[in-house]
Amino acid sequence: MWQMDEAILRIPNPYLRIPMSKYKPTVFEKVEITAAAAEGKSLARVDNRVIFVSNAVPGDVADIRITGKKKKFFEGTAIHFHTLSDKRTKPECKHFGLCGGCKWQHLDYQWQLHYKQQQVIDAFTRIGKIKFPEVMPILGSKEIYNYRNRLDFSFSDKKWLTIEEIQSGKDFDRKALGFHIPGTFDKVLDLEECRLQGELSERIRKFVREFTSDEDYPYFNIRDHHGMMRTLVIRTSSIGETMVIVQCFEERKEAREKLLNAIAEKFPEITSLMYVINPKGNDTFNDLEIHCFKGRDHIVESMDASTGAQRDALRFKVGPKSFYQTNSAQAFELYKVARDFAGLTGTENVYDLYTGTGTIALFVARQAKKVVGVEWIEAAIADAKENAKLNNIHNTEFFAADMKDIFDDDFISKHGRPDVIITDPPRVGMHEDVVRKLVSSGAKKIVYVSCNPASQARDLAILDSAYEVTKVQPVDMFPQTHHVENVVLLTKR
Ligand code: SAH
Predict the structure, then answer these.
(1) Residues 273/294, Cβ–Cβ less than 8 Å
(2) What is the C-alpha to C-alpha distance for residues 467 and 481, in angstroms, rounded to an integer?
(3) Separation of CA 451 and ligand 1 centre (Å)
(4) What is the chain's mean pLDDT, rounded?
């Protein structure tokens, strides 16, 4: 049994900082947490009422302070523990509990996988209400830390202060470089460590934080829009390339060049050092010019797409605006599942809907007659076409448009009836018109890749009239979070 150890509990501050209401808060005592719920919360029941609890894991027995009352359920947070679950483990990062990044660090990885698997089963049973075969055991990630190839850090002149710092009455440096505190608009956690991207990323962030700590580099003030330093993006690839993008709000040429030169000198490993001046209201730089300060304007990611003896890794050019799955190793596992489910023999006409930069399309292209990829971001489609060329793949075609507008009978007659459709929509799932088009598409197989089993289950309920769910394979792309990716094979009835 665990010791009642502060390091294990790490009660998140944000909740405890909610100003005490005039009324005495409702606290339920000695409640057993019975299951995992959506969004990383857990579930408990008191007098037949469901409570979604933060800061606890299944198996804990805790006092729960109610933070919200809805008609059908309550929301609450565990404030005192009587028994700690044996499913707990010690969180590795000192910021656990405050940082919103890894909400499940206190849950043993095998249990994280268990609850992700359960999330899929629950969604299919409760939302989809469809028949489905036994869900295959979730594919866990070999790396459960340092698995991300991209992190976006924010600079802020509103560092999140701990209660101790506030109570001490001292004047604190309010600069911070890190992640936004969940539930706050302008507060940023000044990161001392992050376990998501590896050692080089850590050194780069710390160096930049240190170098910009004086008054020559004011950090961004998101309320009043002033300051220079805005975001720091670090992207890495599995073949050792690194891109760093410094985003400034105000251009201060001399200071900026001094910083970029210092980064370049300190980290010769950086293959692509870039900057962007963004005077807009939001952090998105996809509509702005990104300048290459040193090195190339992209990094290269590599993925082995071969199925036989012949080894020919696919190479992907990843620019500052390009999307690439953030866990490269697990993306590979995910794509292999999708390709297996598609069961291609070389003669099929394949559609890859929501293709992004064409990664799945290119991954399966050598086993298909033709692949047609569709995606609404023009820049992503440009990347997809370029990546096809780069890999000498000539049997793909890519189109940029909103799926619900382009995917119609005309499109199908123009590009040929699909034998297999692979679809990988965003979290919201597919537009109902698109799902209905899939129903009448005539494809023998549909491979549905999803990052949200709830919206996937909703779409499957509509597909059920024409397609039967024959395989379900969850994949863990994001250890330490509640997120789960899920691949479903549908076969025509
Ligand atoms: N399959 C890709 C990306 C999947 S992410 C990969 O594995 O890398 C989902 C993609 O759907 C995103 O690229 C997003 O831009 C795109 N998308 C979202 N809504 C869309 C819509 N209405 N029409 C077309 N594409 C859309």
Answers:
(1) yes
(2) 31
(3) 11
(4) 92
Helix (H) or strand (E) holding 374: strand 370-375
* Ligand 1 near 426 CB (within 6 A): yes
State the number of CA atoms in the 13 A half-sphere of 297 facing the CB: 7
Report the residue count for the chain: 493
Rounded average pLDDT over 192-207? 97
Looking at ligand 1, which atom is closest to the CA of residue 325?
A: 8
Model confidence pLDDT, tens digit, residues 362-408:
999 999 999 999 999 998 999 999 999 999 999 999 999 999 999 99
Q: Where is 373: in which H helix or E strand? A: strand 370-375
Cα 358 to middle of ligand 1, angstroms: 10
For the chain, count helices (H), then strands (E). 13, 21
What is the Rg, in whole angstroms, of the alpha carbon atoms belonging to the chain?
A: 24
Q: Are 13 and 26 spatial neighbours (Cβ–Cβ below 8 Å)?
A: no
- Please state, in angstroms and rounded to a whole number, the distance separating the CA atoms of residues 426 and 439: 19
Please tell me the residue having the least CA distance from ligand 1 atom 12: 356
**Torsion from C-alpha of 70, 71, 73, 74, nearest 10 degrees:** 30
Which protein residue has the closest C-alpha to ligand 1 atom 1? 355
Token pair of 141 as six digits? 């990630």
Helical H segments across 54-103, by residue range: none
Separation of 426 CA from ligand 1 center, angstroms? 6
For residue 267, the one-letter residue type is F
Residue pair 329/238 in contact by the 8 Å Cβ criterion? yes
pLDDT recorded at residue 6: 46
Torsion over CA: 367, 489, 485, 115 (sign): negative
Q: Specify the pLDDT at position 308.
A: 65
CA 92 to chain centre: 20
What pairs with residue 65 in β-bridges? Answer: 27, 77
